[in-house]
Structure formats: C-alpha cells, structure tokens
Amino acid sequence: MDFKFICTIALFFSVLAGKTQDFNGYALYNSQNSSTTYLIDKNGDIAHSWSCNVNGNYAVLLKENGNIVRGGVYNNNQLNGAAIGGMIQEYDPSGTVVWEFVYSTSDYCQHHDIEIMPNGNVLFLAWEVKSTAELTAAGYDGANSSKWPTRIVEIQPDGNGSASVIWEWHIWDHLIQDFDSSKDNYGVVADHPELMDINAVATQGGGGPGGNSGDWFHANGINYNESLDQIVFTARHASEFFIIDHSTTTAEAATHSGGNSSQGGDLLYRWGNPSNYGASGAQIVPAAVHDPRWIKDDGRENGGFIQIFNNEGDNGNSSVDAIDTPQNGYNYTITPGSAFGPSSYTWRHSCLDNAYGQSAHDKLSNGNTFVNLSNEYMYEVDANDNIVWQYNASPAKAFRYECTHPGVQLLMGVDCNCDAGGSAYMDNCGICVGGNTGLTECSGVGIEAISSSPVALFPNPSTGVFELRGLGTINDYSIEVTDVCGKIIRRISSVSSIDLSNESRGIYFVAIYIADANPIVKKVSVIK
Q1: DSSP reduced 3-state for 172
Q2: Strands 506-513 and 478-483
Q3: Residues 328-346: pLDDT tens digits?
Q4: What is the rounded CA–CA span in Å between residue 379 and residue 372?
Q5: Which of 351-365, 421-435, 449-463 has the lowest mean pLDDT?
Q6: For residue 468, what are the domain limits?
Q7: Which of the 8 DSSP states describes residue 276?
Q8: What are phi and psi of 441, to 5 degrees?
C-alpha cells in the first residue's frame, strides 16, 4: 500500500480521535516552472494566490506587507542548469509586479534560492562563468570545459520598478589547491579550512572535479542571520554548508580580512564533509544537502542552531538535522588540523519519506517540525514525531508562516468596522488588527475552530457558489454562514450548494449542524 495513503488515513483517524495539534498557520509555495504562487491554510484550502507573468524557479517568500518575492525564469537565459531563474520579482497581493530585476547574461545567472533581508534587500545565489584557461591557471585538475563557481549577490529595490546590486561575494576569491605548485592558490589544504579546495568537489559524470556540468559546486540554499550579519549557504556537490561574513564591503569580501570576523570573505565555518579540507572525521552529509537556516532563537527548541535538509543523511534516507555550531562571537572555534565541530548532528528528525531534490523544513514556535519533501508532500510532526498535518502537494520547496506573521495578517484580514472607536478587522487567524484590543463585537470564528472533516465545499475559492460534498446519505442538516466578524449572513437547511455570489469578496465560515453533534466548520474564500 502507498506510504502517503497510509499517512493520510492515519492522520484522518487521529483527527477524528482528537489527538492531533492544529496546524496554526499557512504554507507558501510556487511549483517549479509554474506561474502561480499559492498560500494554503491548515485545511489545504487556497487562502490566497498570485498569478505571475513568468514561471517561477520555485523560491518564493512572503514579506511583512503581504507581498511576495520570488525567483522568476527569465525567457532569454543563455546559461541553463538546475533551478535556473535569471530574475527576481516582487508582487503585491493583487498580482501586480512591484519591481523586477534581471540577472542573466552569458557570464552569470541567478538560480535556486533567495533570501529577503530585514531591510527589504534580497540575497540570491548565482553562477559566474570561468573559462578552461582561468580554471587551469587557478590550479584546477582536468579542466576541459568552463565551470560556473558560486557567487552571492545582494540587491536593493530602487523604488522605480527595478533594483541595483549593492554587495557581492565570490567563492572564486577564496580557493586553495595542492595539485600544481606552479599555479595560483597553491598551499596546504589542511592548513586552510577557511578556503575551498578547487579540486575537492567529487566527480559528477566525468570531466574532472565537478564533472561536465557547469554548475560545479551546485549551491542551492541560502539564509541570513541579522544579529550576526552572516550568511549560510549549502552546496549539493560539496555535501557541506558554509557560513560567510556579510558585514564586509564588496572589496573586503574578496580578501581575507575585514568585517566583524576580521576574516573578510573567507569561510567562517563549514560542516558536513571534513575531507573537503583535509580533516579527519565522519562525513555526516553523505550526498545532497539543501535549505540551510538558523533556527529562530526566541525560545523555540534548538534556537540558534543551524538546521539543514540532509537528503541521504539517515543511512540513505532523508533527515532534517540541527547543528549546534561552536560559535565564538563572530567567529567559530576550530582546533588546527581538525574538523569543525560538532562531530555529528546535535538533533535529527528522520523524515517520513525520501527526497533527493530541493526540499525544505522549519522548526516552529510550538516545537513542531515542518517538512516539505520535494516531489512527495509536506507535513508537520510534533515533538514525538506524530503527524499533525499533511498536504499532498509536491513543490520543490515550501515555506511555513504562522498566524502571527504580519504578511499573513494583512492578507487574511477583512475590514469589518467592528469596534466603536474606528476601523478594525478580525483576521482569519482570529486576531483583531487595526483597532482596540478589547473588542467584544468582532468575535468571529477563527482558524482554530475549523473542523478537520472529510466534508468539503467545492470549488474553494470560487466566485460565490460552493457545492457541499462528503455528507453521504445525511440529508437532514442546517447551515449557518458567518463573516469574519461573526455576523450571520445566511441560514439555510438541507441544500446541496451555497450561493454567496452576492456577498463581498473575502473569507466566510460555513457551520454545518447535524443533529446534536458539534458543528462542522469550514472556511471558504469568495473571489471576484
């Protein structure tokens, strides 16, 4: 029997038994090479969507103003590789482009992941092309084609529909090799863990280290830590994640000094594959690795750790691993000649299924773990690995947002003018926004009251007409429809569809009463 089917059935019956913890939030995703971004609620209903003017490469993030920033697939890319993008875009909630920035030529191209910084700037990964002559001069062993080493770029929106580059970091400036003493970057690799051995990356399909693919290190995930002003990124072919200093200038980032760390753009920390820098110790990331992130240090479990998606970390099976780094101020402690600690992961969640591509994860404020398995499904488990939520979509990457996120509140809020002192609304998380906190009239049904039941209203969202499904032979029931303020707008009985087409665009709650049982409550979205 299919494993995902078993999980779904187990989840359904555990919900009926009242043993699960509600999924208190939303998931955001843009399937690879799709032009639509979705924000789904805990019931799998589409809470909001954006129809974009180009396909997405998969990375999409929600801003606090309710806008999204995404990697777009530029139509005139001259390079080609996994998760190619070529452009960054911001859309407002209506799907209008706020700004877009093309980063694609024959010499460089944006790809894979992005990160929104607290100041609104955007970090992204890119390739830069190096010729065989440049590779040979740098001490590369077996150059027979161009390679595309990693660069990280920061752009700043200019307020006029575009953006500009304000900071860059290039791994090309931080290489070492022990292959040819007559070439650049020659040295003792084991003495310089802060540098990347140009010949370390395992062969991928022949053609020397990195294989014939131009995407050499295959960097694929990025995250930013504001308090440290540092960046972490993962590289699939290196089976490592790396931390670099962002507090440098672009000029300092090309050197070995400057910034908070006084190490310029050198690697401050690396973990997963000590053999890449000539150190002994177990290789904890045996193959691909994706989606690095600092766990928020706000009281949640493993706060301040770095968490990664280790595609084959658990004896060939996928795992989510958290690492307690040996941070010392803006630097990381290492014993000369040894590997960076710890010697193994600090915490691990063994995934419910395997994923060999992108994928994502997060440690939530309630202690649960969110996992998105690329080409499989996304789910949430509690501290005991009990499934508390599952959604059978398979994007390359999905991102988790809790109800308290300002962007969620703005997107889900509906103006209901329910307080006596001015305009306010109850958002779909049950939070009053924009008015007095002591409201008594705006006490509508919140997300917590929505029932996990096989009864469904279809299609959802719709322009107003919803078909009632899942009641089987039950034909004696009553229905009450309320808006987000709790105002009753419709009372009907034993109908097969509900017509809200004359109501305003927004969120409504449908309570279905059967005999003396607790009502089945569903959220619907009216779009126009």
Answers
A1: helix
A2: antiparallel
A3: 999 999 999 899 999 999 9
A4: 6
A5: 421-435
A6: 421-526
A7: G
A8: -80, -25
